[in-house]
Amino acid sequence: MTDTRLRDKAERALEAAKRALASNDTETAADRAYYAVYYAAWAMLDAKGLPRPKTHHGLIAEFSKHYVKDGPLKPDQGAVLSRLENLRLAADYTLELIPQADAERAVSEAARFVALLQDE
């Protein structure tokens, strides 16, 4: 059973990503889409009784180890976390604009990822 606070946080971040996308704010959409997935992954680790790693990279590694390497998720599902982190880093730390198509894909992938919490 996942911590409902983490599930709620993931869902709030996803809703913020959708609102940002609707306002053509692709940087915020990318950022919030990543955090929706980040909180969902944290919730899934929490559901297994695993502690939250101290870094984003650590969380991605632990998630991959416990959910992708031996299942139940497929590698393409697990890659979402890393892909969206890279997009967030570009949105937050560069002056490059995030293309609309990339932001749309990020929000769509985040929605599918957060929906995995329903199975926990």
Q: From the structure provided, what is the oligomeric state, counting identical versus distinct chains?
A: single chain
The backbone outline, from C-alpha atoms, is: globular
Identify low-pLDDT runs.
Answer: none
Count of helical stretches: 5
Compact description:
With 120 residues, the protein is an all-alpha fold.
Any chance you could write out the topology, listing elements then pairs?
Elements: H1 4-22, H2 26-47, H3 56-68, H4 75-93, H5 100-115
Helix pairs in contact: 1-2, 1-5, 2-3, 2-4, 2-5, 3-4, 4-5
Structure characterization notes:
The protein is mostly helical and 120 residues long. The chain has a single domain (4-119), classed as Four Helix Bundle (Hemerythrin (Met), subunit A). Helix content is 74%, strand content 0%. The chain has 5 helices and no strands. The chain has helices spanning 4-22, 26-47, 56-68, 75-93, 100-115. Helix 1 packs antiparallel against helix 2 and helix 2 packs across helix 3 (56-68). The chain is globular and about 40 Å long. The mean pLDDT is 92.
What distinguishing features does this structure have?
globular, 5 helices, 120 residues
